[in-house]
Amino acid sequence: MLSEILVSLLLLMGGAFALLGSIGLARLPDFFMRLHGPTKATTLGVGAIVVASVVHIGAGEGEVSLRELAVALFLFITAPVTAHLLSKAKLAERRRASRQG
Prior knowledge:
about 100 residues, mainly alpha, 3 helices, about 90% helix, about 0% strand, elongated
């Protein structure tokens, strides 16, 4: 019963953060502001959903699944790196445009 409540709360929290990140992506005016929404809020939301999956499977089988932990690790490593590379590419594009114009 306690694990079901915890899983439900984590899923609701994850869904709320993913929704906020998606709204931020759609509504924010600048590229860098749009980049901030998905990399922060959506990563936290998907992370909470993966933790809910770990808790759910752990409660059912009695052990922690390495697959879900690998997904969480991959998510938390790749999202900030991707955001950093996208921001550096945009800054380089702006520099090239300012030199040409």
